[in-house]
Amino acid sequence: MAALSLLAAPGAAMAQSGSTAGQTAMQAGVAVRDQGLVATWYPPASGKSGPAILVLGGSEGGEGGGKRLAEAFARQGYGALALAYFNAEGLPKQLQEVPLEYFATAVAWLQAQPLVERGKIGVYGISKGGEAALLIASREPAIRAVVAVVPSSLVWQGINFADYTDVKSSFSLGGKPVAYVPYDTSAPFTSILDLYARSLKTAAQHPDAIIAVEKINGPVLLLSGKNDSLWPSAAMADQVVARLDAKGFKSRREHIAYPDAGHGAISPPGKSANNSGYANMGGTEAGNAFARSDSWARIEAFFHNSIGAPK
Predict the structure, then answer these.
(1) With helix as H, strand as E and coil as C, how does 197-235 read?
(2) Pairing of the two strands 98-99 and 116-126
(3) 271: confidence class by pLDDT, cuts 50, 70, 90
(4) Which region among 15-24, 40-49, 169-178, 197-206 has the lowest average model confidence (pLDDT)?
(5) Which one-letter DSSP state was computed for residue 26?
(6) pTM, to two decimals
(7) How many angstroms separate the CA atoms of 57 and 220, rounded?
(8) What backbone torsions phi and psi does residue 35 show, to the nearest 5 degrees?
């Protein structure tokens, strides 16, 4: 199971980015350690009350990945809260049984900020953070828009980077594990993608693990790469849309799947889409570069249309 160490890479690589031309000069981030939270808050650049985005990095853990992503939104003028949810002081060391109550506390913290306009909170999550974003939004009606990048349609087995034989859920609720799909290790796997694709076929045996996305209180934008070499994000995003359709979801939902893009392509413009941080994540250099530039424009427009443009 040592090959699972590759799962540490997605969020870290995708979160690398530089500033882009023509964006707002953001305010400095402020460390948040209230109510057990480990986060960094970027107030709206205008100093006026406006929309805010909760930002969740991937399986790299800690604050780094989420902070780099939050900075990209802050440069657009949004208030942005980069939330660490494991592998930081005071939080679970491993990506296992992370309490959903912790995310609820973060949403409540945002609601209490005088610079966050009521009814104007969105969430952005990438990779495992995309899984978390959909799950949290299905439980927190204060979240009014969701962007889930290379996401999952269900709750997966958590990741213990020190012991890959330790089988637990990624999340907990009320001290109990959230239903999850375990990895199918009944036979050797050739890659992380092979492991996830094979395990996904067992999802019907774990119906409670499927995220109740129809409970989300606002529009949903899903973005994926069809050449994702870490997990089948395009197929899982399709499953999210199919469930929304089947359940009569009233808000807008859209899935953009980039044919030649991998797991690490969809992130703020900045570094080359073919740099070493993207190794083994799939896609072509041209496909990843197009996905990066096209997707970020779509994400910006989506948040503008759903929670409003920064003031």
Answers:
(1) HHHHCCHHHCHHHECCHHHCCCCEEEEEECCCCCCCHHH
(2) unpaired
(3) low
(4) 15-24
(5) P
(6) 0.91
(7) 18
(8) 55, 35
The DSSP secondary-structure symbol of 261 reads B
Distance (Å) of CA 1 to CA 131, 154, 159, 160: 22, 21, 11, 11
For residue range 272-284, what is the model confidence (pLDDT) as tens digits?
Answer: 545 445 546 899 9
Amino acid occupying residue 302? F
Quick one: which of 144, 154, 162, 161 has its CA closest to 201? 154
How far apart, in Å, are the Cα atoms of 257 and each of 118, 184, 221, 232, 276? 32, 26, 11, 11, 23
Non-local (6+) Cβ contacts of 134 within 8 A are: 125, 146, 148, 151, 152, 153, 211, 213, 216, 220, 240
Delineate the domains of the chain, giving CATH numbers in brackets: 2-306 (3.40.50.1820)
Q: What is the pLDDT of residues 143-187, one digit of tens each?
A: 999 999 999 999 999 999 999 889 999 999 999 999 999 999 999
What Å distances lie between residue 140 and 127, 156, 176, 224, 311, CA to CA?
Answer: 20, 20, 19, 24, 25
3-class SS of residue 256 = strand
Q: Is the pLDDT of residue 21 over 70?
A: no
Length of the chain: 311
| Tokens standing for residue 226 | 């069809």
Query: Dihedral of CA 210/279/124/100: which sign?
Result: positive
Query: What is the torsional sign of CA 183, 136, 81, 97?
Result: negative
Q: What are phi and psi of 56, to 5 degrees?
A: -120, 120
User: CA 122, 160, 157, 106: dihedral to nearest 10 degrees?
Assistant: -20
Residue with tokens 């828009």: 145
For residue 262, CA distances in Å to 17, 201, 215 come to 17, 21, 29
Alpha carbon distance 202, 140 (integer Å): 28
Q: How many Cβ atoms sit within 10 Å of the Cβ of residue 57?
A: 31
